[in-house]
Amino acid sequence: MTQASLGLRLKRFPKEFLQTVLVAPATVARWIAQEVPALLERPHLHVVIAGAAKGPDSLDEGRWYQYLPTLLGRPKMTVRVTLVGPELKQGTENASIRSANERSGIITSAGADAVSNLPTAELAADALSSWWAERPQSEATPDVCFVFHPGMEAFGGSWLSREQGLLPLMDAGVPIGLAASCVEELWHDEWLVRKYGAAMRGLAQANPFALERDNARFGGQWAALTWTLDPTLVPAADFKAIKAELVRFYLALDQAKPGFSSSGNAIFGFIGGVVPIQNVATDERARLVGMPAGVLLCLESGQLLGQNTVGRFELVERIPAVPLDFLADFPGEEAHPVDRFIWASEKFRGYVEPVLLSSAKRAPETYFDLFGSPLEARKGSMPGDPGPGGISDSIGEG
Length: 398
Hints:
Elements: H1 15-21, H2 23-35, E1 44-50, H3 68-71, E2 78-84, E3 122-124, H4 128-134, E4 144-147, H5 152-159, H6 167-171, E5 176-180, H7 183-195, E6 200-206, H8 216-219, E7 225-229, H9 243-263, H10 266-270, E8 274-278, E9 285-291, E10 295-298, E11 304-307, E12 313-315, H11 337-359, H12 391-395
Parallel strand pairs: 1-2, 1-4, 2-3, 4-5
Antiparallel strand pairs: 5-7, 6-7, 8-9, 9-10, 10-11, 11-12
């Protein structure tokens, strides 16, 4: 970038700063090159950044997107950029606002003077649907639309509705790219998109330009992965999501909240995650499934393991084995991670948690107090487990 004619003015800035101000255009450029390479042959591109907010996707009023042609290896290309999102302006009254008013607006970076002579993006501090409805009908459709932080858990129904979100653009044939901050968020977004009648095209791609965050455990990386909405699967006008399935998902999210407060996004991979194990003495194999409260459930025996005070997993003695017929509907190791996440949360809520509460010596003050401290557990009570060196030692710490 600093060797290109437009980038000479950037030489005075440290690499870390350039990674921040260029993360949005670099991510969009890489996605275009990978997913819609035919656009590279056009002399002009109109790029819409939907759901733009206070952060890297709107820095310095979008001037940094003028580096898109350089990043695409097409220095003669011209670009028009439109930033659309109610959070671009403080004081905006809109149901789509996702954060406190003081977190709205546009940031001016320390390098604003280096791009002060470049065109600003067009700013529309409104929902995507309003911007689309108000644009002149004679105007050509945008060449591409990208959403950096869709927040499908909260706004999936809006993004994938014909009245409020992306569907009019899909109807018009506009390629749509999205980003996720971590693989767990990607799982949720992709699952919800399918429930609303759309789908991901192909596989998500890790983004080498992703921006590290101070709270990466909870917030992931900015634009860690990119993915594309399948243009051939546009929900019909009369499509209705199955509310019961969405309710199950949100109940599972509530079940995971205590774990998220301590473990961050990793909890969504732990709950429903499958750990195959093998007893080194008997060659007996088993599968453990993660559950809320840091519990592991053995699918073959129904027994539960929890962490003791030093972080080792041990059998929880005071909880009888979960009946195997209660576990017979396990969706399988190849099932979608969110389907396993929901299953594990429901089994915990339907059997494990009530047993824990009914057998507790005192009312638990926190979610994790359900197991007591230390755990009432012992080794050697797994079928075929010889004690030390058995299933507990095979799992070890962590």
